[in-house]
Every structure is written in structure tokens, then in C-alpha cells.
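Progress note, sequence design subtask.
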């Protein structure tokens, strides 16, 4: 019985392989995993164009003449792509399945170039299709594409807090890196800027900022202070505007 079953499976496998070898590509289609709110940094048809330009038209070609593995590796060279899978669909279409990288912040370096950076510290050019709602980061950045020469550890610590703390994530628009010990946050409203210093005790600093915004500023006035300083443990030092 086992021999009969093994022979049957072998026959089915050989038939499937023969069918695939005889099959031809009927078209090319890309499926791109969407970012938050259904947005794309790059459109599906652009990936189809990439493959066609690199490997030539594949519609009508026998399947065994199409190097799907090479296509996958080529698609992964796109800065917006985290993973790619190329396979033959049920209707004979060559399917390009792509997972986009998720922008974590938008960095402006010292040469005024704009980049997205993701959780894998991969740089991505700014997309012409979609502007990701992430903090803008600028300051003292070397003019290099080598992310590891930038203060990425501190930036990731701040980005982590902004992601985990919903209030802070909705409040902060910009991060300014004057130095490792002089990091500023720029809020959407209230004081013009917030000095956090370094990233030590960052969660506690975020809690103090949140208490100030919820408990004091509604009564003192949103424009009362020009900036606040969170570097002293357990306190917030606020500087009043000149006209207050």
C-alpha cells in the first residue's frame, strides 16, 4: 500500500512539474502590502515596470525560462522593499508579492537631503506618492548615507517612546539633535520647544511633559511659556514669554 501511495505521489509530482514546464506566463501582477491607512510609498505598477525593464517582457514565455529567484533578489534591492516573493499564480500570472518598509522618522541631513529611515536602519528616499506621518528629525548630522555615523541609538529611543506613548506621539512634530546632551522636541502647540537633554529616563520626562500639558497649561495658557526644560529629575523648568 505504501509503495502504491509513493508511486501515486511521484506521478502527481512529475505531472505537476511537466505542466509547469509546459505552461506560459499570461501576465505580470504586483501585490504590495499597504502601510497605515492604506498608503503606498511605491505603486504596484512601478514594480511591474521594474521587472520588465530588468528582465524583459515575460508574458508568453514558458515558465521554466523565468528566473523567479533572481527577480526576488532584484526587487529586494529597492529601498522601499523589505521582502519580496515571486511565484506563478493560478491563472498563469507571474505574481510579485511585496512587503514595504515602514518609515519610522524623516531625517534632514546637513546637506538638506530628506530621507526616511525604518526600524532596520535602512534609508529610503522620500516618496512622491505618499508623505508618511512620522517625526521630522534634523540637527547635527554628518553628510553621509552611513546611518551608523548618525546618532541612531538616541533617535530610536525617542521614536520608541513616541510610538508607545500615544499622547507624546500625537504632540511631537519634530526632533532637533543639537548634540547627544542637547536634544530638543518641537510640539504642535504650547511651548515652542521642549529640552529633554539626553535620552536618560526618557519615559519619566515624557510623563512630566504630559502632566504639564494636561494639568497646568490649560489654566496657565498654551502660549505662556517659550520653552520647557525636563533635564532636572522630577521637575520641569519653564521659561515665560517676554510678553507674559
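Output:
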Amino acid at each position: 500500500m505504501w509503495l502504491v501511495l509513493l508511486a501515486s505521489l511521484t506521478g502527481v509530482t512529475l505531472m505537476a512539474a511537466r505542466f509547469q514546464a509546459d505552461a506560459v506566463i499570461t501576465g505580470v501582477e504586483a501585490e504590495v502590502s499597504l502601510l497605515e491607512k492604506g498608503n503606498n510609498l511605491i505603486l504596484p505598477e512601478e514594480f511591474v515596470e521594474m521587472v520588465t525593464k530588468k528582465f524583459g517582457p515575460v508574458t508568453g514565455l514558458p515558465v521554466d525560462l523565468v528566473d523567479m529567484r533572481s527577480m526576488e533578489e532584484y526587487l529586494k534591492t529597492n529601498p522601499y522593499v523589505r521582502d519580496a516573493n515571486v511565484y506563478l499564480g493560478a491563472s498563469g500570472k507571474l505574481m510579485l508579492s511585496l512587503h514595504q518598509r515602514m518609515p519610522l522618522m524623516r531625517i534632514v541631513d546637513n546637506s538638506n537631503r530628506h530621507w526616511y529611515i525604518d526600524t532596520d536602519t535602512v534609508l529610503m528616499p522620500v516618496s512622491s506618492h505618499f508623505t508618511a506621518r512620522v517625526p521630522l528629525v534634523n540637527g547635527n548630522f554628518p553628510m553621509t548615507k552611513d546611518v551608523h555615523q548618525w546618532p541612531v541609538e538616541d533617535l530610536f529611543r525617542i521614536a520608541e517612546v513616541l510610538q508607545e506613548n500615544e499622547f507624546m506621539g500625537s504632540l511631537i512634530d519634530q526632533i532637533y539633535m543639537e548634540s547627544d546632551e542637547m536634544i530638543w522636541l518641537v510640539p504642535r502647540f504650547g511651548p515652542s520647544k521642549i529640552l529633554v537633554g539626553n535620552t536618560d529616563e526618557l519615559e519619566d520626562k515624557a510623563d512630566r511633559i504630559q502632566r504639564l500639558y494636561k494639568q497646568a497649561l490649560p489654566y496657565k495658557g498654551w502660549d505662556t511659556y517659550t520653552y520647557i526644560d525636563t533635564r532636572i529629575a522630577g521637575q520641569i523648568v519653564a521659561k515665560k514669554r517676554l510678553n507674559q
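Residues 11-19 have pLDDT under 50 and may be disordered. Work on this subtask will continue into the next period as scheduled.
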